[in-house]
Write a structure and sequence with these properties.
Largest sheet: 7 strands, mixed
CATH architecture of one domain: 3-Layer(aba) Sandwich
Shape: globular
CATH class of one domain: Alpha Beta
Distance between the termini: 41 Å
CATH superfamily of one domain: Vaccinia Virus protein VP39
Mean pLDDT: 90
Number of helices: 10
Structural class: alpha/beta
């Protein structure tokens, strides 16, 4: 096991939506959360094999972690090379043969720890990995990436996409996305919009934005706004104009059931991701503590 400070550990293990100011997190809260979880499941006479494995891992940690699995210890920032683009002064790493750019304000250390967290998040053993064999697209598909952030998910699929829509509200990420996807701007569009359940100056819905079109793959990771996004997608869902979906379901305790309800009410067969996450950034986190990271659908 890699030994590091608690602060360093959370930088390394944290997926993108959890990258908030760590100074706002107190280590005593995370230590208490660990023991609350262990005590809660101690009262459960026979937790299933998955939970037993997670609990055994958690016992060895100094505090609660987002991904309670041994594989996270295989990743270290020291192995990551960060490069500076002399043409635009943005930093990047090489991800599967392509340049992945980061926020211009970030230093090398922050980029390394962030990129490691992406690799952990998207490891095939992670409960948060977006891609499965069923998700892989055939050529010439239309992809909509809502909450694109740095764009690692879409970067892996860009060669197969006919049209790629990146939706992001953070201006710094938008600037980085422009550099990452500059070789493919003939088929990539970057939109600074909130995707939700209503339309106004800053927001729109999937039904309005993609009216008359088909989406072959819709991925949404938008910090608890996924249910509202689906409520603004009902026309396309009912018409089966969205073929495959990857929807995050862990930001709020009720997200999984609400996302499941909307998709099943529109005749989608759902496939929850394997494993569990501990969303340590939910101030209201409580029993049963473990959450399902994603729901996928395949049409």
């Amino acid at each position: 096991m890699i030994r590091t400070t608690l602060r360093g550990a959370y930088l390394k293990w944290m997926p993108k939506v959890f990258r908030k100011n760590l100074l706002l997190l107190k280590s005593d809260h995370l230590i208490k959360l660990k023991y609350d979880i262990l005590l809660y499941y101690k009262k459960e006479n026979n937790p299933d094999i998955e939970k037993r494995s997670v609990l055994e891992f958690l016992k060895k940690q100094s505090a609660a972690v987002v991904f309670p699995y041994e594989f996270i210890n295989e990743y270290t920032p020291e192995k990551i090379d960060v490069f500076k683009d002399p043409e635009n002064e943005f930093s990047y790493v090489i991800h599967k043969g392509k340049k992945l750019y980061f926020k211009k304000s970030w230093n090398e250390h922050r980029i390394k720890t962030y990129y490691i967290s992406l690799l952990i998040e998207q490891d095939y053993r992670s409960p948060h990995t977006y891609k499965t064999n069923e998700i892989n697209l055939k050529n010439d598909g239309t992809i909509c990436d809502v909450g694109a952030a740095e764009g690692i998910f879409s970067l892996e699929l860009v060669d197969k996409a006919k049209n790629l829509h990146l939706v992001e509200i953070d201006e710094e990420w938008i600037e980085a996305l422009k550099h990452t996807f500059s070789p493919w701007m003939n088929k990539v569009a970057i939109h600074r919009k909130y995707i939700t359940d209503h339309v106004d100056e800053f927001s729109t819905t999937i039904d309005v934005f993609f009216k008359g079109q088909q989406i072959d793959l819709l991925k949404a990771d938008i910090e608890g706004e996924e249910v509202k996004m689906l409520e603004g997608s009902v026309e396309m869902l009912q018409a089966k104009k969205i073929k495959k979906l990857i929807i995050c379901t862990y930001h709020k305790s009720e997200d999984f059931l609400n996302v499941k309800r909307i998709l099943e009410n529109n005749s989608y067969e759902i496939y929850p991701s394997n494993g569990v996450m501990i969303y340590i950034y939910d101030e209201k986190i409580g029993p049963p503590y473990f959450r399902t990271a994603l729901i996928r659908t395949y049409k």
